[in-house]
UniProtKB/TrEMBL annotation:
Annotated residues for binding of ATP: 255-262
Gene Ontology MF terms in the entry: 3'-5' DNA helicase activity; ATP binding; DNA binding; hydrolase activity
Superkingdom to which the source organism belongs: Bacteria
Keyword Iron recorded: no
GO cellular component: cytosol
Keywords for this protein: ATP-binding, Coiled coil, Helicase, Hydrolase, Nucleotide-binding
Source organism: Nesterenkonia alkaliphila
Domain UvrD-like helicase ATP-binding span(s) in chain numbering: 234-647
Feature: compositional bias, Polar residues: 1-18
Protein's UniProt name: AAA family ATPase
Regions annotated as coiled coil: 63-90, 495-534
Gene3D superfamilies in UniProt: P-loop containing nucleotide triphosphate hydrolases
UniProt-listed GO biological process terms: recombinational repair
Amino acid sequence: MSDTNTAASITSDLNGHDSTPADDDAQLSPAKTGAGTESDETIEAREQSDAQLIPLPPLEGGIDQERAYVAALYRRLDELREENQTQLNRVRSTGAVGTMQNISERDAFASMYEDRLAQLNAVDDRLVFGRLDLENGDARYIGRIGLTSSDRQRLLLDWRAPESGVFYQATAFDRQGVRRRRHLLLKRRAVQGLEDEVLDTSVLEEGTENHGDGALLAALKARRTGQMGDIVATIQAEQDRIIRADRSGILVVQGGPGTGKTAVALHRAAYLLYAHRERLKSAGVLIVGPSSTFLSYIERVLPSLGETGVVMSSLADLYPGIRGMEETDPLAAEIKGRLDWTEIIADAVAHRRRTIPEPREVRVEGVKVTVTPKMVRRGIERAKATGKPYNEARSTFVKVMIKEIAEKLERLLQKRSQGNEADRSYLEEDVRHSRDVRVLLNLCWMPRTPQALLEDLFSKPQYLAEVAPQLSPEERAALQREPGAAFTIADVPLLDEAAELLGDLDEHAERQEARRQAAREKDLENARKAVENASPALEEMGIEGFLDAEAVANLNSETGPRLTAAERAGVDRSWTYGHIVVDEAQELSPMQWHMLMRRCPLKSFTVVGDIAQGSSASAAQSWAQALGPFIDDRLRIEELTVNYRTPRNMVELAERVAEANGLQITSLRTVREGEHEPVIEKHNDAGSLVSAAVTSVGAEQQRLGEGLVAVIAPQKLVEPVREALVAQYGKRVGAGAGSMAQDVVAMTADEAKGLEFDGVVLVEPAALLEEARGRVGSLYVAMTRSTQSLRVLHSRPLPAGFAAEA
Ligand SMILES: Nc1ncnc2c1ncn2[C@@H]1O[C@H](COP(=O)(O)OP(=O)(O)OP(=O)(O)O)[C@@H](O)[C@H]1O
């Protein structure tokens, strides 16, 4: 073990780069504490320094030595937190005085300290989890962030640093220079155990035991809390390769249930934010999931990895200001998912622009002027030639028309007054204010919002028939609805398409945009100066790279409230992200993909899903089919094949049912055998299933001790089951997006997508299959949600594949 591995005055470096020590570290050196009476502060400082001088435990070191070392890391973490808090207080106390630039600087610093404090707080739980002993005698500790010593030696490696890769990838066959991999099992800050994997057997002779996969198994057996946790300590080699894969292009991660796709996707987002911080911090990362329940299930993973500021959105929420309701008719959902809508909506927009069939008189200040179809056509052509979206081009049309009508009016007046000149600008004003002219212009080119356009399309059969000849009369009928009906999830991409083609409704949009651009330039210039001025101080504190002009400009935007890139992205439909992660991606319709592609023109995507689990009306049959229309050669597909969630006995049953019902699946390896065999209960009376579900929840909770139990039932039984559960369990029954925080939940198979529970009570599989129009994906999803136990209740005959257990 080299001397440089001494934990002397450690400096945190969240970016994983070498950092310059803070001046304060010097005060902690025993050499500087001096003789004489020691104040409390000095004693504390000396204790900290002593702790930091503990050498790295040797290879054969035991748990006590590891504890001492980990304690030293935590003391440093606390110090850094204090330092940041002090700096933050100091910056805040300067108040909003001085020039714009001073205020910019102050705010930029304050926000940087806040970010950093949030990150230091976030990594407190299990800060360090691994140690690698290398063949060359060096040791590396791996943790949630990087920590370096005052002489710039890295003492704790960020798990995302390139050198940490071997922690996840080294095997006995391919040691990659590793002698031993040690897992430090922490509960919050306390080291509770060690798990060693010895890759170099000569070390075994030195008396160390090989504990294999203990850390992984412990993680997998743990009770579910209703919130997904990170897997940073036990990422498996096949997962690690995906997490660290190149950012460019579309990476598809295909994997059966429980193979860690969601976990991998989120860790990949954290990795990309680390490896491409500058670019991704300003452009942002978008994570798209199937529902708000799912998003609240995964929302803690990235913060626990020290990453905040990604935008999470369900497909229902991707159009700002609208929350799409469920699309209850599968036929309507399927039709609205088709790419045909790019054409239909373009035609619908064009259709709102029309000439007049014959000349038409308009009155301007009592004078009649004839407007001809030719004049209107000319106006339309000139406006179209600007290439601007519909609403924005309309202002050109209006300008051209007013000018032409005013010219005609001028000629008329000249004739009447035998040559007397009229002032053209007054005439144009008169034309603009003429009611007849306004009516005519609106008739020819009506300003339109995306919402109004869609509402017209679905409530006026004639309009839809004219612009959507590619749909059959039955298909068009399936789309009919009352004006004012709520928008659905399947409408969201159509609204987005319409918004793109219609553009901004505001006639002054152009001027506003120009003003916004000018203000942005000014903000950027201020920000550049602020960052330049701040650079020496940042360098000294080892936090370069945390701040870039773009980020500061966003914080100091004069044009609106101070929002981070993520916050601004979340409310701006036209925002383009640096990377997009899509979970449960097999369900997306072509129109939903079309909408997402627009949000990342670079096409840098991580797409995770399982074709076999598809259940939506537009679910893809293959990744090539789903993504083919949007890419050239950029599709990379990786496959995950180990189920970490569900024990072997349940996976076998689920796979048998899936295959017996014609679903093509890749058989998965499992990590655990399963302590509880699946139970199948036959009930003679369908009416007794609701009360049987309540009883089963009790039975499962008893069997498991404690934990999260879900009843997954056909749509029409979910509400009765929930009511009966509430009668029995009261507030313990969860509802809505936060439902997973409770310990009893009831939901449909579709709602259960992506989630997991300690125990599952599955009600009437035959009805679940029917509800999904015979597609077995939903049933397969439902049968693979449990980590411990599965109980199936039925009154109707079971679908094929259950038989062996019946
Ligand atoms: N390397 C790992 N270490 C510890 N736990 C893991 C690991 N990989 C996956 N898991 C756990 O396995 C469970 C399933 O993972 P995840 O939900 O990411 O799978 P999935 O492939 O998205 O599943 P599904 O398609 O069924 O929704 C989670 O509890 C996750 O934390």
